[in-house]
Known about the structure:
Elements: E1 5-8, H1 14-25, E2 34-42, E3 47-55, H2 74-99, E4 109-117, E5 122-126, E6 132-140, E7 147-150, E8 160-162, E9 169-172, E10 179-183, E11 190-198
Antiparallel strand pairs: 1-9, 2-3, 2-4, 4-11, 5-10, 6-9, 6-11, 7-8, 7-10
Amino acid sequence: xxxxxxxxDDFLKKxxxxxxxxxxxxxxxxxxxxxxxxxxxxxxxxxxxxxxLLSFDKNKKTPDIKKFEPKEDFLGLTHVFxxxxxxxxxxxxxxxHILNPGKIKTVxxxxxxxxxxxxxxxxxxxxxxxxxxxxxVTYLGEKNNGTNLYNDRSNENPDESVVWKHNRCLIFSxxxxxxHDFKADGNSARSTLIINLVDSSHTI
Length: 204
């Protein structure tokens, strides 16, 4: 690969991985739906922002915002997100020092996002937006497709793939060449926890 990444197995504490997966298991999706539950913590203002997004059609330019919530108590989710943030922030900063040390001074926040896509949903080849300084995705569940990595947007076939394993975390720092895509395996929905070190002044 022309860009660096890291893979860590058993990334989350078992109780955190189990909670996140159980939370997402409550979300029922059609084959082409995507669900996102996100929290952003701004270190400057000490404020926390969050939202739920359910996209009914991945081809829509403007996704639908719906109150599409599982029965789980969201105070419980906020508590788990906070525990994960406290447990992993320094580890992720240390990895950023290794992967892209010049960007460490731009980090002033962290976002945590539960994501689930329907069983035939394909998130096509893309590069993360610039305010995502360090990107991570942790696979939740026993079987699905992993993440395909590309050296160039024009490449039709992935240069490498990070295969699926429950609680395996892919970590990279965005540059102009960090192209990647992912899709569910056609048999079951794909559940993940995404954690980003961010420039929180530009996040939504």
